[in-house]
Amino acid sequence: MEVFEYNRSVDAFSDPIFRYILKQIRDEDLSKDIVQESFIKLWEHVDQIEYAKAKSWLFKTAYRTMIDIIRKRKYEAKVDNIVQASHSSSYSDLKYWLDKAMETLPEIQRSVVLLRDYEGYSYEEIGEILDLSESQVKVYIYRARVALKKFIGNPYILA
Questions:
Q1: Three-class SS of residue 95?
Q2: Alpha carbon of 74 to those of 61, 70, 143: distances in Å?
Q3: Which of the four pLDDT bands, split at 50, 70 and 90, describes residue 154?
Q4: What is 1-76's CATH topology?
């Protein structure tokens, strides 16, 4: 990878990686640190990585860095208890319940749903990022969606 390709990677992928990590851990400063650490690692391996594979490599690196930090700090992702929007808006209620539903999912299911439904990645790209087969990705997404549907159908059971 050339220097201009590295710079293009920073411009193109830093925001999507940041959003993905932020949705996982809900800590803006830590998310920024993880993104920065991922790009530092990319720079250290710039001679070994092709530009075409930089996107999946960066997401995979960011994901693994996040897991390492969570394990080191024994960090448990917590939902922000402050609902910023008024409860009178149906959108704020929907967002609140979607966040609560996402909180109930196991980490791997939450990751695949965020990558697929929030970021728009293909099953193949998600598999590359998370080191899963395409069929595993499909199974996790299916199970997550079933759990989300069940939760949203009756949120008071788990709330």
A1: helix
A2: 19, 5, 26
A3: low
A4: Rna Polymerase Sigma Factor; Chain: A (1.10.1740)
Q: What spatial distance separates the first Cα and last Cα of the chain, rounded to whole Å? A: 48
| Domain 87-154, architecture per CATH | Orthogonal Bundle (1.10)
Task: State how far the alpha carbon of 57 is from the alpha carbons of 9, 107, 123, 146, 149, in Å.
Answer: 11, 20, 15, 30, 32
Contacts of 47 (CB under 8 A, 6+ apart): 1
| pLDDT at residue 71, rounded to an integer | 77
28 SS3 class: helix
How far is 70 from 75, CA to CA, in rounded Å? 5
Confidence (pTM): 0.56
Rounded Cα distance, 119 and 123, in Å? 12
Closest by CA position to 7, among listed 63, 57, 33, 46: 46
Q: What is the rounded CA–CA span in Å between residue 36 and residue 30?
A: 10
Q: Which amino acid is at 95?
A: K
pLDDT (mean) for 44-56? 90
Can you read off the two tokens belonging to residue 81?
A: 């208890």
| Spatial distance between the Cα atoms of 22 and 97, rounded to a whole number of angstroms | 18
Is a pLDDT exceeding 60 seen at residue 131?
yes
